[in-house]
Description:
By secondary structure, this protein is of the alpha/beta class. The chain has 2 helices and 3 strands; from the N terminus they run E-H-E-H-E.
Amino acid sequence: MIHVIATDLDHTLLRENHALSKETAKVLSHLHDQGLKVILASGRPVPGLTDLNAQLGLMQPEDYSIYLMVHWF
């Protein structure tokens, strides 16, 4: 049984215009409503990921995101 879905955003979940399709948003929201943990992972700045979490209804204390800190040397 699946309990957690974690996914990257760019070139994975988002379309070329950097937005979620309505269909993808609907499916992820439905999975979350069914009790699955939906976790967005990204190297995007925090506000960009927060907006997507809000769009999907992933803003409860029990919801998680993975913010990747990338340092270029």
